[in-house]
Amino acid sequence: MIEYTIRRVGIFIVGLLLMMSSCKRNPVAWDVDQTVPLFHSSFSLNDIDTKYLKYGVSDSGYNLEYESLLYSYRVNDLQVSDTGIDAFFNLRNLRLNDQEINNTVTLGQINPLFNVLNGQMADIPAQEQSDLDPTDIDASEFFETADLDTGYLDISITNDLPVNINLIVFELRNSSNNTLVASDSFRNIPKGGGKATKTIDLAGKTVTKNLKGSIKRLETEASGGPVLIEANKGLTVTLGVRNLRPSFAVAAFPTQDVINQDEGLTLDMNGAEIKYFKVKSGRLRIKVISTIQEDMSMVLSLPGTMKDGKAFYQELSLPGPAGVGVATTEQIYDMSGYLLDFRGKNPDVTDTVNTFHQILRVTLDSSGRKLAVGLNDSIRLEYRLEGMKPEYAIGYLGNTVQRTGIDTTDFDLFKGLDGDMSFKDVEMRFTLRNSIGAEGRIKLHHLKGYNIFNGKSEVFNADDLTDKYLGFGKPDFKRDEFASLYLTLNSTNSNIKSFLEVLPQKLEYDIETEVSPAGNTNKYEDFIFDNSRTEVVMALDIPISFGIGGLTLRDTQSVNFEELGDMTRVKSATLFLDMTNYFPLDFDLDLQLFDKNFNSLGYFDISPNGGVPRGNFDASGRVVSPSETPLRIKLPREKVGALVKTQYLGIVMKVKGTGQMQKIYGNSKLDMRAKVQFEYEVRND
Q1: pLDDT (tens digit, 9 = 90+) per residue, 505-536?
Q2: Among 363, 396, 429, where does a domain finish?
Q3: Of all residues in the chain, what percent are helix, strand and coil, respectively (each to 5)?
Q4: 655 with 581: CB under 8 angstroms?
Q5: Global confidence as pTM
Q6: Residue (of 241, 246, 212) closest to 371 by Cα position
Q7: How many structural domains is the chain composed of?
Q8: Domain co-membership, 653 together with 534
Q9: What is the C-alpha separation between 437 and 646, in angstroms, rounded?
Q10: CA of 606: how far to CAs of 84, 551, 576, 590, 591, in Å?
Q11: Contact status, residue 571 vs residue 31, Cβ threshold 8 Å
């Protein structure tokens, strides 16, 4: 019996497999329904923004309290324009040492006969000699070689001969190529230490360390009697170089200051005249680029720049290129927290503005090595104050006039709303708040509100505000301190009621602000903090009791139908909307489809088309029970394709007004729950 049962089960399984195999040869299809939730949306006065709604205890109604910043002005966002020093130094800015060397032409060299008579008394006849043997002169103490743009050679001849010299023609040449360096004549040099000097301009000449000095002509007087012959005494030739500025040199450059500044640096403050500047943010950047093969050092001192009781002082080593061509040293100093005295180098003598005292010295530290330096070699200094913004500044902020011209700002109170609404009571307070430490005035040239949905607009007018100057005072010197001016507007002195009944989402304005219209009346005692500003604020107080006609509430929900599977097999779709209305108002409903770029893909056809009825309310207008409305939206297969592209659903609830004033209570809302049902065709291929 058991074997028979197993045999029957086996036959059944084989048959089932045969049937499945047969299905593969002959496809079949069947329908499957799938229902998924989409979203839950709630419409209430939250669409205005509940933070502006004050709930009244006495009547359980709402008051609308709203404050909107219409305009904020800062004094050009006061800051120091990036300012500094760019300095460039090359070989022409470097100097070589002023030096002297001595060389002697002895009496024995002038005439070898005197070597024989050395130490004896003898008469010396008058001499006339030409082209005496040249004398080697070692000028390596000056440099190895130098191509000179400027410079001077002082040639001094001291006469230690026992006879007067009538004439010496002296010539100096480079030994390497026999080029002439200098030639001049010296006359009437007395015996016994007399001296004559000539200066030779070396501009444009090349001078090497190996020189030859030649006496081209020598004329002396007779001794007039026997004199002591000292063969080792004669003429001392002194060569002195000074003010050398080479275009190329191989030399040991002495230690020297290549930059030495001790002065005030004046800053651009965009028209303001500042005495003191407390830095909130900013930096001092110093960059030195050098191709000269020597180390340097830098000292930077800012005597009037204080932090924690200490003046800014920095020493910095600037290593040379060390054979790699270019050495770059960059240092950045954070200036946050420093108080800068902008009264200049010596405020007790000359009290100025926008100027800080800085001492900057860059020194070439000589190693004694002989370096090859040409005009292509240089030292470049970049010294910058960057991004300097104040925590506060004291001085004269300047007479600045700023007019916006036609500009716009958002007005969030009525976001997403349009239609006809009439307010029962409206009061608006224009508040002018000033935390800039200077007097000023403001003028409202133009203000218009417009509704971006229906195109309605209204130009605002007020007897005490429109196109009139309103003066404002300065606060005390304290952060976040304001001086305020208030102006109350209502239906008797303005058109504020009709202006707001447009339900504007945008405000178009033209406002003029002037700081210090009377000039520097406070004698440099105005001030500004980093957050100082002049603001124009619109503050509203409206009881929410209004007449409605065509008021529109809006919402947008994000959806993604592609996540639900293969949409190509959807036969149809049904959108289920369950509406629960706690408003004492009827609504019409529109649903619009949008792609990812908010391009419209069309509207849903809603059934029934009677909209969403109001809730049941009592004599005071309070809803005691909501209405519940199920809505169905059918989409056939030919319209399902639009769902694939749909990324957003736009929901528009249009109020059907009664034409009468309507009170709105805290439980007023409209809930919408949405789900979608797809009918799929499932195929087994």
Answers
A1: 899 999 999 999 999 999 999 999 988 999 98
A2: 396
A3: 10, 60, 35
A4: no
A5: 0.57
A6: 246
A7: 5
A8: no
A9: 55
A10: 70, 20, 10, 8, 8
A11: yes
